[in-house]
Request: fold
Amino acid sequence: MAKKNSGRLSLTSWGSDLPAGIVVFLVALPLCLGIALASGAPAMSGIMGGIIGGIVVGFISGSPLSVSGPAAGLTTIVLSSISSLGSFEFFLAAVFLAGVFQILMGIARAGLFGSYIPTSVIKGMLAAIGIILIMKQIPHALGYDKDFEGDESFIQNDGHNTFSELYYSFVYPSPGAVIICLFSIALIVLWESKGMKQKMLTKILPAPLLVVMSGIAFNQFFSRSIPQWELKGDHVVNLPPIHGLSGFMNQLQQPDFSTIFSNAEIWITAFTIAIIASIESLLSVEAGDRLDPYRRSTPPNRELIAQGIGNSISGLSGGLPITAVIVRSSANIAAGGKTKLSTIIHGFLLLICVISIPGILNLIPKSSLAAILLLVGYKLTKIELFRSQMAKGWSQFLPFIITLFAILFTDLLIGICIGICVGILFILRNNFRSAISLTANGNNYLIRLNKDVSFLNKPLIRQYIQLIPDGADVIIDGTHAGFIDEDVLEELRELMHLAPQKNIQIKIKNIKSL
Reply:
């Protein structure tokens, strides 16, 4: 049994956190770029958001394994907000204000919302994210890169949907991409096998890094020997030209606060981003805690403050709004990350590599990265998860499976809202059933009020009363009920009123109102 790690920043676990940080960096790089381009924002704003999410939020957050950065769930809001505000600089001012709102929400202890989400809904979200990863990465694995990296919605910005994108990817595959992806998957499976895990090489060189290196080597071979199989353009990572730190900073824009007190649209945008980013962050850290092998818990209010500080700095630095994101967090956990050091490492790697080796990063085939994410998706949606939920009964399985399909056919936030509503309905149903019980023994009947009884329990108490036959002896016990609604009392009074006509003998225990 592994020794439990607190998740605090510690160099003692660097042997696990460094490889995990490299993996998260490789996953985050194309996602940051893809989300920025899909949002109609400068490419470097996505990279800056990833850097801030890794370094700043990584240091402040209480989560040991969660990774923050630009989120696909905000692309539509970012795209429409830039258009409605008139410039990206005004939008950056809204991002700064959104961070301030999140800090205030954390201070007000609004983070407790995440604790009320049913476990079945969280597990449904994880399974859905796993299936979405698989379905969304198959086109990239086959070399059909029309949709942006990180898209999680069923209806895509290009007018296609997840299924039509899959269809066209099989109709128009790229042989080079298919070969690179299949080799990459085989390499990861081999590298993570029991026999290889014991070797020192696998501990020093993480499989995803080896996959990326081999993908570059394959593509260089194709460019020289089989040019028609070479991957280029949209099929590889595509950073804009960068010339050192100054070149990187020159591509970042600064917020414009000149109309902050005269333009209400900026405040509305800021509040919208704050609410959605906070919900997605709380959902992601809750899901990450479920995946954590050490079963650690993230302080939700501290997380909101960390996200708020991150968003304020991201807005001031020219970055996109950020949230905790489950895909990068899942990759971190799957890669063996143990503390927040892996998150911070990924942020520094984004900064250093984008500035120093952008040319090498632009050689990475997306099909190599797709192989990594395909296996992350598989680990999130193993068949054992479905079996375990089924074994718990319909009250757990239905919210789980409804959440899963709702996310698949809408997007993360809409699907979660649907799942929460279904979960609440089952919770209410179970509470209604357990609030009142009817026990029969021959001609003796016991109606027990087991907990607080509200007006919503009125149909159930009426149903039980109708089951009592003429001539019965009835005990109505309210010993364990702290509160009994007047509607329920009225039903019991009606029973007492009709009792003499039906020769029913009634005894009341601990209900002063009757």
Notes: Residues 264-291 form the longest helix (28 residues). The chain has a mean pLDDT of 92.
